[in-house]
Amino acid sequence: xxxxxxxxxxxxxxxxxxxxxxxxxxxxxxxxxxxxxxxxxxxxxxxxxxxxxxxxxxxxxxxxxxxxxxxxxxxxxxxxxxxxxxxxxxxxxxxxxxxxxxxxxxxxxx
Length: 110
Prior knowledge:
It comes from Pseudosporangium ferrugineum. This protein is mainly alpha-helical.
């Protein structure tokens, strides 16, 4: 159990290097201009990590319900979302846009 916790902590630290850069920039901005206040940076960081932990916990509980052979099918979810986005983008591209009459800012009704 200790090895798993140590590995998880190492992975968490390794994947949060970008977060450290963002936090550094936010704290430097707070020190230089006072915006955002440092307490908002702290609260936002803790709220974000708490949300990630909660979603991960819910996903772990949800995976105990799903049979093991079906968990591989979860990889199809991002593919389906991407295909749906491509189809929606194609439909939006085919929809004709109304042109505004010259000298006006908005499309004419009808």
